[in-house]
Amino acid sequence: MKTIIIVASARKNGNTNTVALELAELANCDIFNLSDYNILPFDYDYQNQEDDFIPLITQLIEEYELLIFATPVYWYAMSGVLKNFFDRFTDLITVHKELGRKLKGKHCAVVTSSAGDHLEDQFWIPFQKTTNYLNINFKGGIHTHPEKDRNVILKSFWKKIQIHSAKLPKI
């Protein structure tokens, strides 16, 4: 199963990017940062169609089966960068419906990073509900903390995802 990690942080070289790089090495998968793209906010008049969202999501849909979102936790929620990206899924159920239908059967997971050492269950609700609505298989999420042993946490997380798919590379 071809996998990509989508980093959604305001800091290109922060803790979230470090976690994403560690997971990418462990999982032998691709990685990119949303901050390298011009993705405008959702617009009810769809005046944003010339930005990078549609070409990027098209590439993700066509090339990858598992999307792992890496986000810092800001104010008890996903980053604004990732929220903006998720808001643009609306384009895929309105003006780009055929493309949006191709999300069905894809897989998704989330890795987070923050100075706090835990997240409450409610944090995962936007991911669970969004993936359910789009018929994407949500494989779960894991939270990391800079002072915890991320290697152990990430290995455990990757093994958990592998259990649900024989197509993923073993560690």
If you had to describe this structure to a student in words, what would you say it looks like?
- The chain has a five-stranded parallel sheet, sandwiched between helices.
- 35% of the residues lie in helices and 18% in strands.
- The protein is an alpha/beta fold.
- The chain is globular, with a radius of gyration of 15 Å.
- It has one domain: Rossmann fold (3-Layer(aba) Sandwich).
- It has six helices and five strands.
Quick overview of this protein structure:
The protein has 6 helices and 5 strands, in the order βαβαβααβαβα.
List the defining traits of the structure above:
171 residues; alpha/beta; Rossmann fold; five-stranded parallel sheet; 5 strands; 18% strand
Indicate the CATH class.
Answer: Alpha Beta
Which descriptor suits the 3D outline? globular
Determine the CATH superfamily. Answer: Flavodoxin domain
**CATH architecture descriptor text:** 3-Layer(aba) Sandwich
Q: Tally the helices.
A: 6
- Radius of gyration, taken over Cα atoms and rounded to an integer in Å: 15 Å
State the end-to-end distance.
14 Å
Largest sheet: 5 strands, parallel
Under CATH, the topology can be stated as Rossmann fold
Given helix and strand content, the structural type is: alpha/beta
- The number of strands is 5
Q: What is the chain-wise order of helices and strands?
A: EHEHEHHEHEH
